[in-house]
Amino acid sequence: MSRVKRLRIELKGAVQGVGFRPFVYRTAEELGLKGFVMNDSRGVLIEVEGEEEHLERFLIDLNLKKPPLAHLFSQGVDELPPAGYKNFEIRESEEEGRKEVFILPDIATCDECLRELFDTSDRRYLYPFINCTNCGPRFTIIEKLPYDRPNTTMKVFEMCPDCEREYRDPLNRRFHAQPNACPVCGPWLSLYTPSGELIAQRQKALELSLKMLKEGKILAVKGIGGFHLLCDATSEEAVKKLRERKRRQGKPFAVMFRDLSQVEEYAKPTELEKALLLSPERPIVLVRKKKELAPSVAPGLKRVGAFLPYSPLHHIILRNLPFPVVATSGNLSDEPIVKDNEEALERLSEFTDALLLHNREIRRRCDDSVVKVIGGSPTPLRRSRGYAPMPVGLPVKLSKRVLAVGGMLKNTFALGMEDRAILSQHIGDIENLTTLSAFVEAVYDLMGLYEFSPELVVCDLHPRYETTRWAEEFAKERGIPLLKVQHHYAHVLSCMAENRLTEEVLGVAWDGTGYGDDGTLWGGEFLLASMSGYRRVFHFRNFRLIGGEKAVKEPRRVFLSILFHIFGRDAFGVIDLKRTGLKEKEAENLYIAWEKGINSPLSSSVGRLFDCVSSLLGIRQQLSYEGQAAMMLEDLYDPFVKGYYPFELRDGEIDWAPLFLAMLEEKDPRLASSRFINTLAQITLRVATELGTRKVCLSGGVMQNDPLVSRIKESLEDKGFKVYTHRRVPPNDGGLSLGQLMAGALY
To answer: Could you give all domains of the chain from N- to C-terminal order, each with its CATH number?
Structure first.
């Protein structure tokens, strides 16, 4: 006969707010087991008692049949003497102890809620805040752990009897769905004029909003993690008006489509891109255009950032419009996304014709995520809503609790504990007091959620990064050590971390700029890197960035610099200045600045070499946003072009002079851009072959270029190299904080 046993099971991971307790309750009931399940500060605690074979089945089901949104990171099982439990129950949460629960991201509306949303007989018909344990807001409404309704911004809404009944029923899919609500007891919509006058509420507010969008108006709409600015994506007049009001020159807008069939009307997503569009994270996915929307949506580009509705309100809006909508972040360019009603009325009114608000507070800003298929793999370019703050596992165990503050552009920061990294949502470019304040607010917020007190702070080596300055002050105030990590080493470590590598690799870290050990601006680096450090083994030949920051926004300055390096003053006989838009006197002044090194720092940046090619080919002489030239060159790439330009490797340096001398003879921009990208792949193969290191990690913002990464992988893998790329964090500076955590592992 089987004997009665009692097991105590401790589960850690993303196990709160996913329907885990009702799942455990149902499983125990089906097997005739007794005991209890409860949330605590570490995760989920289960005590279960019964016959041995039933307990074995229970443990198997716990892992094989768990809710789809649950992620287990550890499972501890201890046997205890039987306690004589009479039944199985769900107990109230305990808040004591170290906070180790992982908070779920905000999840797109599930199919069951969607069916109810558009069912005229359902009590939540067209209710913009419908949700259940399988979907809805999490990260943006939680105030503290454990994840219970009193600890969320939903605490101000008292549930009606019907919602309360669902909430208390372990067999209902809304059992302990913390945002549970309905039109009787939950949040509602309000429509305001830009001057702050109330126009309408609830259903009427929604109807008037739809009418205004159909009339070509611009609306600010409060969503899950902040505001969107919405307008008709097929109306050039509306989109141009939005660009003017938002002061956003050429940077592409994201477009929200009603469903996949509407995406396919305007674009040609691959099967993998379709899967990403439909995933519960609902990121913006970069897909190839088929039919033009308004020309100002993504000017000069062959791709558009497409995404599908992820909140009930989005679904209602898109179902009632005959066109897709531009859905861009509700902010002025280079500022944090707006999240509060008063803030929206103050900061977004000048952009909009009306503001559609709701009265569910957003606890923290969380912008939309952006994903692109690069080298055959889905790669985040911005990791935020839907993904953050899910942890990333580390291949090493941290001896200290580490705060890594990231870089200046595309900032994320990270909390490191034991073998896990919790990366923040996308914060943005930390270039002014407003964005620095948003960064500081987010750091203290996430540390507060986890009751996290760092024992080490890690930052970038660049002395002028606002994040570096803040880290210096923070470490000094707390009396804890500060570690500064070279930018490109952090990029390589980031790629190593997510691929669980600790041994030596060849790190190829290419980007726009990063502060080097020698005080120059690196950006075209080959590093032999491991957990114990790195060695710069090859880099692109340095050139001057004439005018410093101005060169970042004017590819023509980089082109002239390259010509000056090759020809000296004779460069003026090579170039037609009219193509660059520069007058003769301006070009002469640039030559003097180059010759004397006046505000013209040395750089090895591959990102800037892309800019140079853009200017040389007459594609862009000035940029309206970061990465514009590289994106346009990527669009010109022809996979059937197999040739490449000459280059030279000597004394750890890659000389680009032969490359550009050959390119000056090229007449076809398509051939030139394709051969340039092929040349970069060939350079990587030559360096890897010369060094012999078989594992190669690709990182840095330049590695957002799909044909480049594809060609590098193809070239190296054909010769037996193993190539590692990013799949969980961005290759750009949004992934730096993960690499910084890795560097902190051996401090």
So the answer is: 4-90 (3.30.70.100), 103-187 (3.90.870.30), 189-358 (3.90.870.40), 380-503+731-744 (3.30.420.360), 508-724 (3.30.420.40)
